[in-house]
């Protein structure tokens, strides 16, 4: 993590939003979430779950994750505003906007939701690892797909203290499970 990123993480605790901040991730038993800019598995049911859960809400993600989605879909996630965290001056197509820091990302997400949907109850934080790491201290809810596998990968979900989280639902499927945690008061 760069010095700039350290500073950004320190500033996380000061972030404020009236919306529920929701982390959403698919994570293998060994903590892996990514490989070569993509996910190391293809689980259509999880992709549908991600789509249904995030539809009509702003979704914050890092530039690397965003570029992976652009490569796969040829466009940003349909039906949602993607807020791309980057230090670069990126040109983005319709449906994606750039933010240069965490506070900027939240403000941009709220503004986009008001403009597009008249507001939002939730803002999603959709990775990758650098973005989960910075936002996790202020995430209210974590929607996790646990993939029961130990794949090779180059990107992992950050260490997190499960004692700080209460498991509120678990839906076991074939080879994976949908879980939902809320931060303990
Ligand atoms: N399994 C899952 O649920 C899941 C979800 C998401 C992603 N993934 C996987 O994770 C991998 C990508 O994760 P990653 O950690 O390598 O990259 P990432 O978090 O997607 O993107 C990293 C980039 O985001 C930008 N960034 C992050 N924090 C910033 C800040 N505070 N201010 C400005 N810019 C900031 C920087 O872009 P610049 O370099 O442009 O400045 C940084 O290089 C991929 O393999 C992807 O498929 C998996």
Explain this structure:
With 185 residues, the protein is of the alpha/beta class. 29% of the residues lie in helices and 29% in strands. The mean pLDDT is 93. The protein binds NADP nicotinamide-adenine-dinucleotide phosphate. The site of NADP nicotinamide-adenine-dinucleotide phosphate (NAP) has 30 residues, from strand 1, strand 2, strand 3, helix 3 and helix 5.
Identify the overall geometry: globular
CATH class (first level) name: Alpha Beta
**The CATH topology is what?**
Dihydrofolate Reductase, subunit A
Overall domain count? 1
Radius of gyration: 15 Å
Q: Describe the largest sheet.
A: 8 strands, mixed
Attached small molecules: NADP nicotinamide-adenine-dinucleotide phosphate
Tell me the structural class.
alpha/beta
**CATH H-level homologous superfamily name:** Dihydrofolate Reductase, subunit A
Order of strands across the biggest sheet? 5-4-3-6-1-7-10-9
Q: What are the secondary-structure elements, in order, as H or E? A: HEEHEHEEHEHEEEE
Q: What's a quick, concise take on this entry?
A:
This protein is of the alpha/beta class.
Per-chain topology:
Layout: H1 3-11, E1 20-28, E2 32-34, H2 44-54, E3 59-62, H3 63-73, E4 82-85, E5 96-99, H4 102-117, E6 122-125, H5 129-135, E7 141-147, E8 155-156, E9 165-172, E10 176-183
Parallel strand pairs: 1-6, 1-7, 3-4, 3-6, 4-5
Antiparallel strand pairs: 2-8, 7-10, 9-10
Bound molecules: NADP nicotinamide-adenine-dinucleotide phosphate.
NADP nicotinamide-adenine-dinucleotide phosphate binds next to strand 1, strand 2, strand 3, helix 3 and helix 5.
């Amino acid at each position: 993590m760069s010095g700039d990123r350290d500073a950004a993480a320190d500033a996380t605790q000061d972030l404020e939003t009236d919306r529920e901040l929701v982390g959403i991730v698919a994570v293998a038993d060994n903590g892996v979430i990514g490989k070569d800019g993509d996910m190391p598995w293809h689980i259509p049911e999880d992709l549908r779950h991600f789509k249904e859960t995030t539809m009509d809400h702003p979704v914050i993600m890092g530039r690397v994750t965003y570029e992976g989605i652009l490569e796969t879909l040829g466009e940003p996630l349909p039906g949602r505003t993607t807020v791309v965290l980057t230090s670069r001056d990126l040109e983005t197509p319709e449906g994606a906007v750039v933010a240069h820091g965490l506070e900027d990302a939240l403000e941009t997400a709220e503004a986009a939701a008001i403009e597009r949907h008249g507001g939002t109850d939730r803002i999603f934080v959709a990775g990758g690892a650098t973005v989960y790491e910075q936002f996790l201290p202020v995430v209210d809810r974590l929607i996790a797909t646990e993939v029961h596998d130990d794949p090779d990968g180059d990107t992992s979900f950050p260490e997190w203290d499960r004692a700080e989280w209460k498991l509120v639902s678990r839906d076991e499927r074939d080879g994976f499970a949908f879980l939902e945690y809320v931060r303990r008061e």
